[in-house]
Amino acid sequence: MPLDEFLGQLGEKAGDVVEGAQGALENVDLGGIVEGAQGALENVDLGGIVEGAKDALGGVAENVDLGSIAEKAGDVVGGAQDGLGGILEGIFGGDKE
Predict the structure, then answer these.
(1) Is the pLDDT of residue 52 over 80?
(2) Which residue, among 25, 5, 2, has the nearest Cα to 13 in the 3D structure?
(3) Domain ranges of the chain
(4) How far apart are CA 67 and CA 70, in angstroms?
């Protein structure tokens, strides 16, 4: 089969596919899909979701000892300051003879 004939048949088939797709899309009820989606969203209890999230976060926060965390962080910072002070004293301080 010559190339021109092959490309011509290929173009016809592609045209048939496009026409078929357009015909199928004409039968899709987009309004019904949108209305259905809106109806589904109306049944979602956003308030309940928010309240559930707050309850879950409250439960987590109640189980975290923030005072203990702050105390440990203070210990780490204090230790770092003491260590740095010791290093600086070793470099610049002390008896020099």
Answers:
(1) no
(2) 5
(3) 1-44, 46-97
(4) 5
